[in-house]
Design goal:
The longest helix is centred in the N-terminal third of the chain and has 8 residues. The protein contains 4 helices and 47 strands. It is mainly beta and 689 residues long. The strands form 10 sheets. Strands 26, 31, 34, 35, 36, 37, 38, 39, 40 and 41 form a 10-stranded antiparallel sheet that branches. Strands 2, 3, 5, 6, 8, 13, 14, 15 and 17 form a 9-stranded antiparallel sheet that branches.
C-alpha cells in the first residue's frame, strides 16, 4: 500500500481527505471490552465503514448477504490515490492487549490483494492510518504460485520496506473457509489461521520476534477489517479488492495460548470441538487405542446425539458414547478403535436442533519413534538420494559416476559452525550426485549454495525442515532436512538393501502448498544408466496442506486409491539385495507453474505389509423374523465372501449400551441363528469386523 502523501496533498488539497459512514450504537457489545457481530441482523451497527478514496470519486461497497459481509473496492481513476482499498472498524473500542478473530470466506483468489485484521489502528484517514495488520496475500509474487501470511507495521497507510514483522508461506484453498486471528499481548503480536473444520489447531502460526522494538511503535488503537490491491497497475479494471467476512469477535481479555475455546465460543448456536484426542496433527503419537472429542455446545440449540456420525479413514465408527460434562460440554469417546503404526483421518459431524451443524476433520498418526527406529522399518531421508563421491566445498564439482548408497546411514547434517555431522563421512551430508543418473534438476548450475547447503555440489535444493524434530536429530543437535525448490518433471534416485523377499507399505512425510502427485517407481534395470527401465509401483497423492510448516504422512496408493504394496522377490540366492527406486515429482509435466517449489518432502517410511487382503468390503445379506419361541428372533445371514459380523443390542439409541454382542462367521452359504432378545431391548445393529 505505497502512497505518496506529498502528491496526494498537491492534487487533492481542496478536498476533504477522509470520507466515512458511521453507524451509531453498540448493539453488538457482549461486555466490557468484548464485541461480537455475526451480521445476521443485516446492519453495521457499531462499525465505521471507512472510504479513504472518496476524494477521487471511488465508492467501496459493504453489503450483507445471508449474514456475510462482502467488502469490495473498485480501482481509483488516478494512480496517485494509491490502490483500491476498503476498511471497516470499531471507533469506540480502544485496545492495547487484543484478541480479534474473523471468518474469511469466498475471496477472489485471482486478485493480487491483501486482507485481514487491523489492530492498534489510529489516525484513520487518507495517507495517515497507523497500526498493525495481520494479513493474507493470495498472490505474493509472480515467481511462485503461493501466497503469504504476514504481520506488518503500517505507517501512513502504507507498509514501507523493513516493516514486515513475520511471514509464513502458504496457499489457502479458495473454496474452503478459514478463521483468522490477531493477538497483541505485551511485547508480542501473533497471527493464526485455522481451517473452520478444525479450530483446535492452527494451520499457520506466526509471531513477532522477542525483543522486536517495532511492536511498541503503536501501543493502542481501534480494531477492524481491511483489504487492498497490491500491484502497481492500480487504475486497471482488474485492480479491485474484495473479501467476504463473517463472525467477527474482539476482546481485550488476554487469551491463553490455547485459543480453541475462545474461537469456538464466539458463534452462538454452533457446536465445536475444543479438545481432540489424539490431537489434530498428532505426530508419532504412539500406540493410542481410543479417539475422543470434547465438544462445546449451545444450550439453546443442543446437539442431536442420535444423528452424530464419526468416521475413521472413511469407515463409520458406531461404537461411541456421548457423555455430558459441565458448562454445556460433552465428551464423545470411541474406545479401542485405533491401531498402532497407522495414519488416520477422522471426521465428526455434529447436527443441532437449530439446524446448525459442525463438521470436524482432523488427521494424526500412531507411529512412534521406537517403531521408526526398529529393524522392521526402513526409513529413507528424502535428501539422502544416490551419489558418486564426496563434495569438495572449494571446487563444487560433480563426480564422474554415481549410483552409490549407504545402508542404515546415521543422521546427517551441519552443526552450528557448519561442520559436517558425522565428521567421518559415513552419512549423506556433503555427498555429490551425478546429474541424469542420481537426480534430474532443471537448474544445473549452483547459483546460490545456501539453497543446497546439505549437498553443496548438487543443485537439488535442501533446507532445514520445519517439521517437528525426531529424537535422533535432537540428540545429535542438528536439523532435519527437506528437499525443496522442486519443479514438475524432476526426480531423485535411491538405493537401499532390503530382505529378499520383501513387502512394504510406503508413506511420504511432507508439507505442500499445492495438490500434486509423486510417482514411486522401481528401477528394474541398471540404475547407473541415464535411461533405466522404470516400473511404477504407486503414487503419493499429496493434498494441499496449506502451509510449508504443516506436515502429514501421505500413503502410497494404487490407481484405485487403495494402499499400494511394494513387493519384490529375487531368484538370486541371497537373503538381502539392493533395491533401487525413483521419486518422480508430478510425472512428466515440465515446470508446471502452479506446482513450482510447492513441495517439501522430509522422509519415506517403509512399513512391513501384512498378507494380501481384498480391500473390497463383503456385501452382507440378511433377513430378520420373529422366532418360534417368545423373546427370540430368527436371523438369516449370508455374504458374497467370508466375513465376520457382530450383532449388538441396546435399549436406547440416544444413550446406547451396545455391549460386546454376539459374533458369527458369515459365508456365501446362508446360515440361520436364533437370537434371544430381552424385553428392554429395542435396537439392533450388525457390525462387519
Amino acid at each position: 500500500m505505497k502512497i505518496n502523501q506529498a502528491l496526494i496533498w498537491q492534487v487533492f488539497r481542496n478536498f476533504t481527505l477522509v470520507g466515512s459512514i458511521t453507524y451509531l450504537g453498540l448493539g453488538g457489545i457482549l461486555g466490557q471490552g468484548q464485541f461480537f457481530d455475526d451480521f445476521e441482523d443485516g446492519n453495521f451497527e457499531g462499525w465505521v465503514l471507512q472510504n479513504n478514496l472518496e476524494v477521487v470519486g471511488v465508492q467501496p461497497s459493504w453489503t450483507i448477504v445471508d449474514g456475510q459481509v462482502d467488502m469490495m473496492c473498485p480501482p481509483p481513476p488516478v494512480p496517485n490515490a494509491g490502490p483500491a482499498r476498503a476498511f471497516m472498524y470499531l471507533p469506540d473500542k480502544n485496545y492495547s492487549n487484543v484478541y480479534a478473530a474473523v471468518d474469511v470466506l469466498n475471496w477472489n483468489n485471482n486478485i493480487n490483494q491483501a486482507f485481514g485484521i487491523f489492530i492498534r489502528m489510529e489516525n484513520v484517514g487518507l495517507g495517515q492510518t497507523t497500526g498493525y495488520i495481520v494479513n493474507y496475500n493470495p498472490n505474493q509474487t509472480g515467481s511462485v504460485p503461493w501466497g503469504q501470511f504476514q504481520i506488518n507495521r503500517v505507517i501512513g497507510e502504507a507498509v514501507p520496506s523493513g516493516n514486515t514483522l513475520a511471514i509464513d508461506s502458504m496457499e489457502l484453498e479458495p473454496n474452503a473457509d478459514y478463521r483468522m486471528v490477531a493477538i497483541a499481548l505485551e511485547g508480542k503480536i501473533i497471527g493464526l489461521i485455522y481451517d473452520l473444520k478444525d479450530l483446535t489447531r492452527p494451520i499457520s502460526r506466526i509471531e513477532t520476534a522477542t525483543g522486536d522494538d517495532r511492536v511498541f511503535t503503536y501501543e493502542q488503537g481501534s480494531v477492524g477489517l481491511f483489504n487492498f490491491y497490491r500491484s502497481n497497475d492500480v487504475t486497471a479494471s482488474h485492480a479491485v479488492s474484495q473479501t467476504n467476512w463473517d463472525n467477527f469477535y474482539v476482546s481485550d481479555i488476554s487469551p491463553e495460548f490455547e485459543p480453541a475455546p475462545w474461537i469456538v465460543s464466539n458463534i452462538p448456536g454452533k457446536p465445536g470441538a475444543i479438545e481432540l484426542t489424539p490431537q489434530s496433527g498428532a505426530y508419532l503419537a504412539g500406540n493410542m487405542s481410543s479417539i475422543s472429542a470434547l465438544i462445546q455446545t449451545d444450550a439453546t440449540h443442543p446437539v442431536v446425539a442420535d444423528d452424530i456420525t464419526l468416521q475413521l479413514n472413511g469407515q463409520a465408527i458406531h461404537d461411541f458414547t456421548w457423555s455430558p460434562m459441565e458448562d454445556n460440554r460433552f465428551l464423545l469417546s470411541a474406545p479401542d478403535t485405533l491401531k498402532a503404526n497407522q495414519i488416520y483421518s477422522a471426521q465428526l459431524n455434529l447436527p443441532t436442533t437449530g439446524g446448525i451443524s459442525t463438521t470436524v476433520i482432523w488427521n494424526f498418526d500412531t507411529f512412534s519413534n521406537a517403531y521408526l527406529d526398529s529393524q522392521d522399518v526402513i526409513l529413507v531421508e528424502c535428501e539422502d538420494f544416490n551419489f558418486g563421491g564426496m563434495c569438495d566445498p572449494q571446487l563444487l564439482e560433480s563426480p564422474e559416476s554415481g549410483g552409490q548408497f549407504i545402508d542404515n546411514p546415521p543422521v546427517s547434517g551441519l552443526d552450528e559452525f557448519s561442520n559436517p555431522i558425522p565428521a567421518d563421512g559415513s552419512g549423506y551430508v556433503l555427498k555429490a550426485g551425478l546429474l541424469n543418473v542420481d537426480y534430474f534438476d532443471f537448474d544445473t548450475t549452483l547459483v546460490d549454495t545456501s539453497d543446497s547447503i546439505y549437498r553443496l555440489c548438487d543443485p537439488v535444493g535442501t533446507r532445514d525442515s520445519l517439521d517437528s524434530s525426531r529424537e535422533d536429530y535432537m540428540a545429535a543437535d542438528i536439523s532435519e532436512q527437506d528437499v525443496f525448490r522442486i519443479e514438475s518433471g524432476e526426480w531423485l534416485n535411491y538405493t537401499r538393501t532390503f530382505k529378499n523377499p520383501s513387502r512394504f507399505h510406503v508413506y511420504l512425510r511432507t508439507s505442500s502448498l499445492a495438490s500434486q502427485s509423486v510417482t514411486f517407481s522401481e528401477i528394474t534395470s541398471d540404475p547407473l544408466t541415464q535411461d533405466p527401465i522404470l516400473t511404477p509401483r504407486g503414487t503419493f497423492q499429496v493434498p494441499n496442506l496449506t502451509s510449508s510448516r504443516h506436515y502429514q504422512f501421505v500413503p502410497l496408493t494404487r490407481d484405485d486409491g487403495q494402499p499400494a504394496t511394494v513387493e519384490w522377490t529375487s531368484e538370486l540366492d541371497a537373503a538381502t539385495l539392493p533395491f533401487s527406486f525413483r521419486l518422480n515429482f508430478n510425472g512428466s509435466e515440465p515446470q508446471e507453474f502452479l506446482k513450482k517449489f510447492t513441495l517439501f518432502p522430509n522422509y519415506l517410511v517403509f512399513v512391513p505389509a501384512t498378507n494380501p487382503v481384498d480391500p473390497t468390503p463383503a456385501q452382507l445379506s440378511y433377513s430378520v423374523l420373529r422366532g418360534s419361541e417368545p423373546n427370540t428372533l430368527a436371523i438369516t445371514l449370508s455374504s458374497d465372501k467370508p466375513t465376520q459380523v457382530t450383532i449388538q443390542q441396546s435399549p436406547s439409541i440416544s444413550t446406547p449400551q451396545w455391549g460386546s454382542g454376539q459374533t458369527v462367521q458369515v459365508t456365501p452359504e446362508p446360515q440361520s441363528i436364533i437370537l434371544t432378545v430381552p424385553e428392554a431391548v429395542a435396537f439392533f445393529r450388525f457390525i462387519q469386523n
